[in-house]
Design a protein that fits this description.
40% helix, five-stranded mixed β-sheet
Length: 110
Amino acid sequence: MEISLQEYKRVAVFTVTGRIDSATAAELETSIQSAIDKGHKHLILDLSAVDFLSSSGLRVMVNTLKTLRKVGGELCVAQPSERVASSLSIAGLDALFHSFESREAAIASF
């Protein structure tokens, strides 16, 4: 898994490539927590290049969303791959996360 971060004035965008599973979820969680610690409370996960999302990855997403909502923030998903969209749907979490067709649309939502 590879993670890159682009920080904007009102939002931080994480681009994730590869698999988010039990072996990599902690790395994603650490990266996200670092952005939150810097003061970002609006985060976007660009998951267009993620080919597998396990329950460990879903847990990171749900916990991040809870943390951000406590401080008036939000976590959105941009360009979810077909597998990510399917994982979110199967877990019943597709209604919980705002999903956007493009990074630009996600950024503009803040």
